[in-house]
Amino acid sequence: MTFSLSGSFYWSCCDPSTTLPPQRVRFSNIMEVRQLPSTQALEAKLSRMSYPAAKDHESMLRTVGKLTVTDVAKISFFFCFVWFLANLSYQEALSDTQVAIVNILSSTSGLFTLILAAIFPSNSSDRFTLSKLLAVALSMGGVVLVSFSSMDSPDGKGTIGSLWSLAGAALYAVYIVMIKRKVDREDKLDIPMFFGFVGLFNLLLLWPGFLVLHYTGFEAFELPSKLVWIYILINGLIGTVLSEFLWLWGCFLTSSLIGTLALSLTIPLSIIADICMQKVRFSWLFFAGAVPVFLSFFIATLLCHYNNWDPVMVALRRVFAFICRSKHRIQRLPEDCEQCESLIPLHTVSHDNESFCL
């Protein structure tokens, strides 16, 4: 049957006297219209513009969207108390326990950040994924091991310092998630001006605390010595101004989760400082807990770099499909839920021509 069809087709093509019926091709009369989500409207508009026009438009948007001095002052007033309490908790933890333990316990802010960012998302990079949760759980597992390594403190200050560290971690998570929700882009906020207003409001509003602490006998007020003034200036310039500026800038450029997990990068230096300067000896639990905390930062960086890639969820779906022996089905992409689809009929088609529609 196949040979006869091929032969007839061959003779029909070679015989000039044979006329073939005209081939008609009709396209479908259905037009599909997709509307991009509003979050991609700016990128779609810039992609249709020339490069010089796109650069001019981008610079104009930066100028127009930049926050005024009044807006920066309002944001600073809202966050000055949260920033003060977070730093107070961290400094109290440093006075009650060792530096390395404080830094590792402070890295638990990644868990608080992951939860708060899922509840109050600022952009797509704050989306909750199972892989991010496991990365934070890996960090938390290291924190548990480090906490066990400090349980042998005879004066009980290790437990108090751990509580201060956890309180500071939660406050830092609230601070970074809320400020990213208020300011969506780093070019809208003048970060040095923001921290300048934060320091100004703390100076104007919190100075009565000196009198309260002094007359209640909780902490006597006295002028610091020359050496303490030097330590205050160095800590203010390096430990507060420079580190807070770079940390907040990095959180705007990446994500709030990466910014909070980046605190774990201070762990190796703090360990070396405690071993060399204070002759502190750490048990094997401390080092076993420091490794996963340090590793979780790089895992979270890879997950956010590849557009919230979730390999754990993909692996679980494949295992579930293999166990259930289910057939492969076409799955909608995560972006499809943000798109609306419309089918617009151009004209009606007769039943005779339906077989020719592609």
Automatic annotation (TrEMBL):
Residues 160-300 form the EamA domain. Signal peptide: none annotated. GO terms for cellular component: membrane. The chain crosses the membrane at residues 67-86, 98-121, 133-151, 163-179, 191-216, 228-249, 256-273, 285-308. Keywords: Membrane, Transmembrane, Transmembrane helix. It is a multi-pass membrane protein. SUPFAM superfamilies: Multidrug resistance efflux transporter EmrE. InterPro entries: EamA_dom, EmrE-like. Pfam families: EamA. It is found in: Membrane. Putative solute transporter. Belongs to the SLC35F solute transporter family. This is Solute carrier family 35 member F5. The lineage of its organism: Eukaryota, Metazoa, Chordata, Craniata, Vertebrata.
